[in-house]
Amino acid sequence: MSGPLAGVRVVELAHIMAGPVCGLMLADMGADVIKVEKPEGDDSRRFVPPEIGGESAAFMMMNRNKRGIVLDLKDDEDRAAFLNLIRDADILIENHRKGTMEKLGLGAEVLASANSALIHVEISGFGRTGPYADRGGFDLIAQAMSGLMSITGEGEGRAPVKSGAPISDITAGILAAMGALAAYTYRLKTGKGQRVDTSLFEAGIVQTYWQSAIALATGTAPGPMGSAHPLNAPYQAFATADGWICVGAANQRNWERLLVLLEVPELAEDPRFATNRDRMENRVELEAALTAILTLKDTATWLAAMERGGVPAGPVLDIRQMHADPQTRARDMVVALDHPTAGRVETLGLPVKFSRTPGSIRCPAPRLGEHAAATFEAGDGNTNGN
Prior knowledge:
This protein is an alpha/beta fold. The chain has 2 domains: 9-207 and 326-375, 3-Layer(aba) Sandwich (Rossmann fold); 244-315, formyl-coa transferase, domain 3. It has 17 helices and 13 strands. The strands form 4 sheets. It has a 6-stranded parallel β-sheet. Strands 9-10-11 form a 3-stranded antiparallel β-sheet, covered by helices on one side. The chain has a two-stranded antiparallel ribbon with strand order 3-4. Helix 1 (18-28) packs across helix 7 (167-190). The radius of gyration is 25 Å and the shape is elongated.
């Protein structure tokens, strides 16, 4: 193992996305993550198409760098085998509905008795407390109830739109990893484990910092603004002669630089656009004025000009273009692995770099039950024959 978490053992009793994102982050930073699947496997194994060599591309993306075993936790011997894993684990990740672990005979008290220093990470739809604690949760529902869908889209009066990415699932996994590491730091100081509780709902809420600041200050809920920013302008996508360009000229210095390279001194004298407050109050007129200029040339020409002029800007890339971008490749955000069934596959890299203890993408996602023999010694309760 390599990375800052080398030597940390994690048991991942989680499925689909939020929990596996947490395990993925810890595994990429060097933790030994043992993924425990039900006999039929993680549901994401059936998220097909696409498949590569008969393996789900979705499952392989979320579960690289993990060892995989199968346990039926309704079976007494398999449950005992799971508790043996817990006794040697530092962190447990699970994303079951409230009460599920208790029904399996693996509630918090049982786990703590097996390992009092265990960090028990619980990811759920709405958290373990509050009036919605018993509800199941999905990214779509979390985006709706957290307010995210009310601020996403082209404008007022349009149908609700969710983020194209499952943002509450992914954010919940990242928050859970952060919480696990904070609890692990506390354990290093005190020797004491604890439960870490986060949810998709809260993961959606924390994405609304700017909009919540506006609503709490004004008493009015902001709505969708397309690609525009709720507090700064110009900071959005603009049409060009052949596509789109995103311009981040939000602060006054960058606004002034933009005016110079666009060669429009008259906008500098226009009182509607003098300050950020003025530009926000007249954002529709500002967008129209800038669009009239930017549509005169193609995206590549404007990008080159803005780079020379020191104005933050970028193209709108599709996913394949992003994968091929030289910065993506330079930052090792697309890496290749050899999978025993799927062959050579590419996956996303670790987004955090360490100068002394670099993380790495070491191995592909496990086949169902692949690592049981290496994980259990004979007689340790693995009754599935995997």
